[in-house]
Task: structure prediction
Amino acid sequence: MSTLAGRGRELIPRPELTPDALRAALAVVAPDRLDEMQAMKDEAFAKAVEWRSLSPVQSWVLIWAKEIEIARRPDLSTRYTQAQSNLEHKDPAIAREALGELSAVLEEALKAVRE
Result:
């Protein structure tokens, strides 16, 4: 396990941005989501052929890299889960705060995988 200053422990190292590396990482941090990942991959590759563009595949890679980044980092995972649980809070201020926190977590994860 590696440690990032100010971020705490990582469950696994950040995987490379390849389908095989992402699948292997997901198998460790969220194996219950492998079928979801495969279905999205199949859809992305079908769209890539239909559209004659790699953009659906590139989007798939970024989506799953972000999801894995959140799952592999307990600090982000905790923030994400807490924010999600407050999205439909009866107090609108708490719900707005949760939405802002959820956006911040997603942005932080995406920024990390693009580094």
